[in-house]
Amino acid sequence: KFGVGGTPPYTSDILGAKATTDGDVSFTFRNASTGTSARSILNIESFKVGSKAAIQFGDTNYYTGYLSVDSSNGMIFALGNSASFLNSTEQMRLTSTGLGIGTSSPAGKLDVYQSSSRYIRAYPSSGLADLEVVTNNNVQPVFAVKGTGTADLIRAYSGSTQVLTLDSSGNLGLGTTTMTRNMNVGGSGAAAGLSL
User: What does pTM read for this prediction?
Assistant: First the structure.
């Protein structure tokens, strides 16, 4: 069925289009149920989330989220489980600065934010390094590496020169890739040739 000018989502139309006096325009796909079970499966509307155009998603029981976009706030991804899609909670936002997960104001190209003491930030506009890992390590470690094979666990390079190696046996090499002890130091510095 196709309806024009109806009152979604509680109609029997499977595909509907509507324009209102306040300038709201919608294009709706819904399930074939009638009454309150006729939830929109996909709804494209203008000026539905504040002043932003939105694509709403749902199932036969609830609105499950929306994607909205405008020039001021960027692109917002929200998830929900409610009879009103406006109750959806923002999960991600893409702005001219970058992509924020858990924050509406990303401070880098990628900002995964839990709190001011727990976040991962790549290429921040200002900060400590190109990659920042900030965490409250009272309970969890800052960084963990788990290997399931026999190759090195960690390698660090200065240009094309491998300057640090941690192999799968837990042996550490500084300035050398040949470890015969728990720690070997290569190069020409004061500690060169040191093995522990």
Answer: 0.71
Find how far residue 116's CA is from the centre of its chain. Answer: 17
Ordered per-residue pLDDT tens for the chain, 196 residues: 444 545 544 444 455 556 555 555 666 666 555 554 555 566 666 655 555 677 777 776 667 788 888 778 889 898 887 766 667 888 999 999 999 999 999 999 999 999 999 999 999 988 789 999 999 888 888 889 999 999 999 999 999 999 999 999 999 999 999 898 999 998 776 666 677 6
> What are phi and psi for residue 92, nearest 5 degrees?
-140, 150
Burial bucket for residue 14 (CB in 10 Å: 0-12, 13-18, 19+) = middle
Q: In what order do the strands lie in the sheet with 172-174?
A: 154-158, 161-166, 172-174, 183-185
Residue 86, phi then psi, degrees to nearest 5: -65, -15
Rg of the chain over all Cα atoms, to the nearest angstrom: 27
Strands (E), the chain: 2-4, 15-19, 25-30, 40-49, 52-58, 63-70, 74-82, 89-94, 99-101, 108-115, 118-124, 131-134, 154-158, 161-166, 172-174, 183-185
Q: Which two tokens stand for residue 158?
A: 């200065």
Q: Are 109 and 92 in contact (CB under 8 A)?
A: no
